[in-house]
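Predict the holo structure. Ligand: zinc ion.
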Amino acid sequence: MLSPSALALAQTLVRINTVSANSNLELIHFVRDALAGLGVRSRLTYNADRSKANLFATLGEGKPAGIILSGHTDTVPWDGQDWTVDPLGATVQDGQLAGGDREPRLYGRGSADMKGFIAIALAHAQQFLDSPAPFAIHLALSYDEEVGCFGVKELIADMRDAGVRPLACLVGEPTSMVPAIAHKGVYRYKCCVRGKEAHSSLTPQSVNAIEMAARVVSRLRDMAEDLERTEPRYEGFDVPFSTISVGQFHGGIADNVVPRDAEFRYEFRDLPTADAAHLQAQVVAHARGLEPAMKQVAPEAGFRFETLCEVPSFLGSRDDAITRLAQRLSGEPGTTLVAFGTEAGLFKNAGIPTVVCGPGSILQAHQPDEYVSLAQLARCETFMKQLAATREFN
Ligand SMILES: [Zn+2]
C-alpha cells in the first residue's frame, strides 16, 4: 500500500506547472526547502536567464560515494489535447484496465513522466539519511529534458566540478518498474538553404533553394533505406535498426518565383551500436558537395546546419551492479529496452553505470489523462525502502 504522505507529495509536485516552456523554480525551491528541513544542502545550477534550475543534493554526506536517483522536473504541455480531468488537478480516482477491472490512479501531467518517481524518492529522504548503506544517495533533478536534455548536461558538469564521483545512476523514467538497459538516441537538426531568387522564367540566373534542399532530403531517404537494408539488427526495439525522418519542410513564396530560402528539420534515432555523428557528417558532406555549383551562380548561396538536440543512445549492461540492484529491489528478474530517449546516455557517457527504472508506463506519458497507478507508486516505494536498507553494492 502506498503511504498517504508519499501520495500527497506526488500530488503537490503534479500541481506545480513545470511545462518546459515555463520556469521550474517553484518545484526546485519546494524540494530545496524540504531537504533543508532535514539539514541537507542542495546545489542549484541555472540556465542562462536563471529562470530554471537543476538540483543536486547528497543524502549521506561523508560516505565514500553515492548512487544517483535522477529525474527531470519539466513536463510536456497539454495544449490541444482532450483531457477529461484537470492536468494540474492531481486527482486520485479509479480507472479501467483493459480487462475491465478498476484500479486507483493519480491523474495529471507529469504523474508518470516523472513526478511520481521524484516524489517517492523525496519521500524517503529521511530514510536515506538514516540508511546503513555504504553509499550515499544523490538526488539529481534536471530542467529541460523534454526539449533536448539540456539541463542535465549542466548538472553533470557541476557534479564533476564539485568532485562528486558517483558509483551509479538510476533514471526513474516510466518503465513499469522493469529495469531498462538500452534505448536509441535522438539527434535533431535544422538545415537552412540559401539560394538566389529570380522570375521563374529565368531559372538559369537563380539557385532554387527548395530543389537544393530536396536533394539533401533525398539523400536522407537513401541513407534511411540503406540502414533498413544493411544495418545489423538490435533485437528488442520496436524498430530494430536506426531510423531517419524529415519532420518539417518550408520554402517558397509564389508559383512564379524561384525560391531563395528553404528550411527543413530531420532526426536520427540511432541504435546504441550506431554512430549518429557519422550519419550527420554524411549529410553535411553531401550538402557541401552541392555548394560549388550553387556558388557559381550566387556566392552567398549554400547550406547552414543547426543542431536542435543531441540526446545520445544508452547502453547499459545486465552485469552492471546497478542493474542487478534494480532487479533485486524491483523484484523484476529480467531487463527491457525502451523506445524513448532519456538522460541515461548522458550519465553513462560521463562514466557512470546507469539503469532506467521507474513507476508508470510510457504509454500514458505525454498523453491526455496521463496517470500513474497507485500500485506502481507503491512498487516504487517498496524499491526506495529496500534501497535505504541495502547494506552492500557490488
Ligand atoms: Zn520523461
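The two ends are 30 Å apart (CA to CA). The chain has a mean pLDDT of 96.
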